[in-house]
Specification:
Elements lengths: L3 H9 L3 E5 L2 E5 L2 H10 L15 H6 L1 E5 L5 E4 L4 H13 L1
Antiparallel strand pairs: 1-2, 2-3, 3-4
Length: 93
């Protein structure tokens, strides 16, 4: 379970909390992370989310941190391992 300070850190980075039934997630949108990638190319070795996501994934794919487990998860994104690594760097920065 994420601590309150970790949840606040994610909120400060643009994540939005969503809770429904037993689900508790902190979602982040594509634009926020992709813009950060362009501004911090040295941290992501010049890679951006756009390298791993097509138009369909950008418009309908989902990226979030599971508040209960602390794991980064995705839905509807084929290169999810690469996207998750970029999101980890974004959170750590």
């Amino acid at each position: 379970m994420l601590k309150n300070s970790e949840i606040m850190n994610l909120r400060d980075k643009g994540f939005k909390r969503w809770q429904n039934g037993d689900m508790d997630r902190m979602y982040i949108d594509y634009t926020t992370v992709n813009e950060w990638c362009y501004q911090n190319e040295d941290l992501v070795d010049g890679e951006s989310l756009k390298m791993y996501m097509d138009k369909r994934e950008i418009s309908s794919g989902k990226m979030w941190v599971n508040v209960k487990t602390g794991e980064i998860e995705t839905k509807g994104i084929d290169c999810s391992a690469e996207v998750i690594e970029i999101i980890k760097k974004y959170i750590e920065a």
